[in-house]
Amino acid sequence: MQETAEGAGPFTTRLTWILEDGGTAVWESRPARKRGLLTVRTPGGPEQRSRRADNESIARLRRLNHLAAGAFAVGGALFAAGAGVAQFGSGGATGVWIYFAGGLFFNTGGYASLLQAINAPRRDSAAGAPAARSRRWWSYEPGRIDWLSTFLLFTGTLVFGINLLSSLLQGLSTQQTNRLIWAPDMVGCILFLISGHLALVEVCHGRPGVRRADLGWWIVAVNQLGSVLFLVSALAAFTRPVTGSVLNADLANWGTLAGALCFLVGGVLQWFEHP
């Protein structure tokens, strides 16, 4: 049985087997993780049938997917509301607490995404359906692109939490503001960008490109756009040491609002990417 692997660097994102009966079996990282699918093409025909994992895996994947999708949608909505309050309202503690609540939902969505990668069904054989694994709450698998991407995403949400907690502190100097609020914000944005790039590599099986017919690609692309906008916002929120004012408050607020809406849209789209 001939096997062909695709991916980027040390990561394998798609495996294709030529079966003994002349057909092919295809395993792809994201469909297997999100939907528990292994696609089999029968010999002599264009039709495809997708073999799903067992009912236990399907139920687990669906629960985790809905939890992650809902958490990112609500978190994005709260971040957009917080940015709106900062831009059009009186600002102050109200906007900070809205951001903090949104950050908790982002934490939840990040960990649910990581759990989905950890508990993704694994293939026992080329032609067999993906098999369930015993439930796990943690693993260390940096050689898997889905694990690494979701781990960096979850870590980014935790770093954003440091930024949000520090925002509740009063009487910070300019240096403390940049060190405790701005620096974690930048680190979180960079982690989100790296995670999104790995996710694009995963869905494109190598160099990132455009895959208009792939729902997974749209989810990843929209979220990556949101990460870019978050980075622009973070750069604009740097506090000048001399004047004590941010570089561009309007750009910081609008960048956060637009980026949050991207994650809101990505969460809604992810709701439909289930078994």
Structural notes for this entry:
- By secondary structure, the protein is α+β, with helices and mostly antiparallel strands.
- The protein has two domains: 2-52, no CATH class; 55-271.
- It has seven helices and seven strands; from the N terminus they run βββαββααββαααα.
- It has helices at residues 29-35, 55-88, 93-118, 145-167, 174-204, 215-236, 249-271; strands spanning 2-8, 11-18, 24-28, 37-41, 48-52, 122-123, 130-131.
- The chain has a five-stranded antiparallel beta sheet. A two-stranded antiparallel ribbon has the order 6-7.
- Strand 4 (37-41) and strand 5 (48-52) form a beta hairpin.
- Helix 2 runs antiparallel to helix 3 and helix 5 runs antiparallel to helix 6.
- The mean pLDDT is 88.
- Which word captures the global form? elongated
Helical content, roughly? 55-70%
- Uncertain segments: none
Strand content: 5-15%
Termini separation comes to: 28 Å
Structural class: alpha+beta
Largest sheet: 5 strands, antiparallel
The tally of strands reads: 7
Number of helices: 7
Please state the oligomeric state of the protein chains shown. single chain
Number of domains: 2
Adjacency order of strands in the biggest sheet: 1-2-3-4-5
Tell me, rounded to a whole number, the average pLDDT. Answer: 88
